[in-house]
Every structure is written in C-alpha cells, then in structure tokens.
Amino acid sequence: MREKSEVFKVFKKFKNLVEKQSGRSIKVLRSDRGKEYNNSEFDKEEGIEHQTTTVSYNPQQNGVSERKNRTVMEMARSMLQEKHLPKAFWAEAVYTAVYLLNRCPTKAVQNMTPIEAWSGKKPSAKHLRVFGSICYVHIPTEKRHKLEEKTEKGIFLGYSTQSKGYRIYNLKTKKLIISRDVEFDEDAMWNWDEEKVERQSVMIPKETPPQQQQEEGTDQAEMERRSQQAPGSPRRPPPSEEIEEETPPRRTKLLSDIYETCNFIMLEPENFETAVKHKVWVQAMEEEIKMIEKNNTWELADRPKDKEVIGVKWIYKTKLNADGSIQKHKARLVAKGYSQLPGIDYTETFAPVARLDTIRALIAIAANKKWKIYQMDVKSAFLNGYIDEEIYVEQPQGFIAKGSEEKVLRLKKALYGLKQAPRAWYSRIDKYFMDRGFRRSLSEPTLYIKSQGNDTLIVSLYVDDLIYTGNNEKMIQDFKEDMMKTFEMSDLGLMHFFLGIEINQEKEEIFICQRKYTETLLKKFKMESCKTVTTPLVTGEKYQKEDGSQKVDAPCTEVSLEAYYI
Hints:
Layout: H1 7-22, E1 28-31, H2 40-46, E2 49-52, H3 63-82, H4 90-101, H5 114-119, E3 134-138, E4 151-159, E5 166-170, E6 175-179, E7 182-185, E8 188-191, E9 196-199, E10 206-207, E11 213-219, H6 220-227, H7 255-265, H8 272-275, H9 279-294, E12 298-301, E13 309-310, E14 312-320, E15 326-335, H10 356-369, E16 373-378, E17 392-393, E18 408-411, H11 421-435, E19 439-440, E20 447-452, E21 455-462, E22 465-470, H12 473-486, E23 489-494, E24 497-498, E25 501-505, E26 510-513, H13 515-524, H14 555-563
Parallel strand pairs: 1-2, 13-17
Antiparallel strand pairs: 3-4, 3-7, 4-5, 5-6, 6-11, 7-10, 8-9, 12-18, 14-15, 16-22, 16-23, 17-18, 19-20, 20-21, 21-22, 24-25, 25-26
C-alpha cells in the first residue's frame, strides 16, 4: 500500500481471496483504533464484528498481531544487516520474513506450518536461499549475442508468488526481475561503496532448474519510494568492525538443508509435553511402561535420605523399514545416567557389539553352504540385565502412581540410560548362551557357535538384535522357542534388513545391498542426480588462504568415510 487510505481496498481483496479459497466467512476483525479500519457500513452488510482496542496507545490489548509485527520487523532488520543491505530494500525483507514464517511450524496450528494448515500440503524447503546473497541470473540466448556474458550479477530479494521463481535485484539494470535460472553464492555480499562482491567464506553455488525469466514493473525509483527515501544509489551502512582480508574458508549448510532437517525432526517429539498430544506416542509410552512392569524392573520405595535419586526422561524414535516407510513409533524411558557416580552407582560399563565384518562373514558362510539366515529382536533388552548396585530413579512423567507421588522407584534390573545397562545385558545374554552349550568366539565376543555332531548353529548378537543360521532346521527351531520362553522376543523370520543392509535370500543365493543407505548418503550431499567423475574435486571451486585456526567442513572427506560402510 502507498497510503493508509488503501486499507479498505486491500482488505476487500483479502476477504474475497480467503473466503473463496477456504469456503468460510470472516466473522471477526480485530484492529487498533486507526481511522483507516473504520467502515461500519461494510461490516454490517457483511456481518463482520469489528473489535478494537479500548484504549488509545495501548498496543498490548492487540497483543497477537502486535507481537507478530515485531517478529516480522526484527527478522527483516536482521536480514538487512546480515548482508549490509540498504534500507531501500526493507519492503522486500518484510515480505520474505512473512514468507518464511508461513513455512515454519507453530503451536497455533498444532505444530504444523501455516501453509500446511491452509492448503493441506506440507511445504517444500528445498528452494529456500539466504536473503541478500549474491546470485547470477542466466541471460536467455534470445537476449544476448554469442560472445556476451551468459549471466548478470544480482542480489536475491525473496520469492515470487505469481510464478515459481526468485525475486532478483539486477545490479546492472537497477530493476527487480523474476527468474528460476539462478546460481547462488550465499556466503558473498555486495559492497555498495566499491561496487564489488565481498566474500567472508567460500561456498559452492547451487544451480536451480532452468525456466523462463521475466521482468516486473518495479525499478529503482519504485524501491526508493517504498522507503520514503531518495538516495542517489543504495549505500551500505558502515560495519562496526573491519573484515579481515584473509579469512579461512568455511562451508556452511544451505538454509534449505536446515529446513529439510527440521521437517524430518518434527516426526519425533523432543519432550513429553509435545508427545502427549499425539495418540501414537501415548500408545508407545504405554507399551514401554507395560514392558518395564512385566519385566519386574522396579518397585515403589520411599525416597532415600543418603542416596542420590536419578532422574528419567522419555526419548522418541520413529523406526523405518528398508524402503524408508515408517515401521513403528518407539518411546524409550531412559535414566539420566550422566548423574551417576563411578564406584558408587556403577563399576564396569564395557559391552562388546558385533563388527560389521563379522556380519558379512556370517552371510558369506550361509550363502556358501546354502543355509537360511533368521533374525530375532529382544524387546527392551537392557531391562533384562541384573544390577548389583542400589539405584533409585524418579517416577516417569505421565505415569506417576496416584497417592504415592512422593515415592521413588528402586531398580531391580537395569534401565536404559544407566552406565552399566549395556554391560548388565551382555552379561545376562552371554550367560544364557554359555549355559546352553554354545562356545564364544575368541576374536569376536558376540559370536556364538553350538555343535552337535555334524550339526552347527551360529548366532551373532548386535546389542538386542540376533541373527542365526545353521544346517539343522530342528536345532534352529528349538533355539528360537527357548529364546522366546526366556525373553520377550520378536520373531522377524528370514533376515531381510539388518544394520542398514538389505538382504534378499533366494533358494541357493543370498543378495545384499545398501540401497537405502546409499540413497540417504547421496541425498545428504546433494548428489542424487550426480554423474560419475574420475576425481571428487569440485568444478569451479574457489579457494582462499587459511591458517588452520578455524574448523573447515570437508564434504569430500566426510562422504568418503561414510561410504566406507557400503
């Protein structure tokens, strides 16, 4: 709006839009006592109740909108200052701040984003970029000669709502354009005094899919009018400190990476207060408590005067299948073991786990001998471990015994989170195998072998997951039945997915792959559509001197280490 008198005209457009899009009518309009909001005749005709703050100059009576206005303005101010942009771009910063807030989860709509609550579709964050960063806009071949430059330098100023494109301030033409064919340099900014790019750190530009480019009727004069200023050319406000000439290169995550991570994390509550609002997590917590009580893990006791009581907390995890789909929602009650005192609350803590080489060797043996490999899972394995120490924990949130709120729980068996819990579980399961005639491997403490004449049974243990194979089906069946009598087990049948490895067992062959892990790795490093190259060196990378004083992200090293597990 150019003037406040345009409020009514803009409101009518807004009203028509939201009512037609949502199928609902506006019933209440709340505003301050500004005269531009007064149109009682229109309100009566449309059946709208107009509420106003009762006292002038008391914005706190319209707290929701006033606080949101403050949030938007603080975001806009921060974005302008971060890239040293002139105030002439304040309107673009405000627009972008609102655009981002509409794509951030909020309690007002049950932890969804406003866009998702409005449209029913989860918004993508892959296109988000750092406001005010330097970018390079592709010039269509129709608008340039063969020997002219293919790109023009610009400043990213937000997102277009009319088309799928970015709003770019062209530094050459001083006009605002919209384009999809843009490369971004998010760690660079424009030096308005020297008319050049100023760099603080290095980042690989990311190219977006090419599409059309068009100009809007917004030029430099229009932007100056918005800010009610008329500078000859935008000037960068002087920074409070001089930037060093040589800065160690540092890679930072794209804003889109951060948003994608946040969207995934929303699947798993961070605390009890959030989880209790969702039925699936309430059921998961009830199942966990049921398992603990069935296992006789604790008993109510008076709070001890000479012993420290350890706190507990809930941890939530969404377990996925091999194809990435949700398998189940798991809630785990864990003790805050970091408060335990060595020598008093625990002694030994070490517990071995199977090496990946051992798992692969077992699969190779089974494939060579044409044996089937089976898999079982011990439910709440750590709860089966016996402990010798006297340990007390607080009652868990949501499951405090009525009438015994002041009491605590004395542990009879281990609880997840205790320092000695892994050791206690391993001691219990190791004793089980040894008592039943298994031999423990000297080089691999989690590999057990049982022989009866020419029959062999091999079991490998990875914390609470067991895989087993052999040449005698009756021997295998007896072992499974005995395990299920002794512990609460989940029979997973033939092994299909274990430690990120997908296993396909045919009649005489076993095929293994890590498709899901590989796809996740490629997605993490933005290489889903990559082409093979002879060297991992990034094309067009720019480097600066560094003295080794700051930590530098090294994607090449990181991906190489993670690829080691493939």
